[in-house]
Amino acid sequence: MAPLILIVEDAPSIREPLARYLETNHFRVRTAGNAAEADSLLAAHAFDLVIADIMMPGEDGLSLCRRIRSSGALPVILLTARAEEVDRILGLEVGADDYVVKPFSPRELLARVKAVLRRSQSLPPRSAEPQAKGYAFGPWTLKTEERTLEGPDGVVTPLSSGEYTLLLTFLERPNLVLNRDQLLDLTRGREAGPFDRSVDNQVSRLRRKIEADPKDPLFIKTVWGGGYRFSTEVRAL
Question: What pTM was estimated for this model as a whole?
Answer without folding.
Answer: 0.57
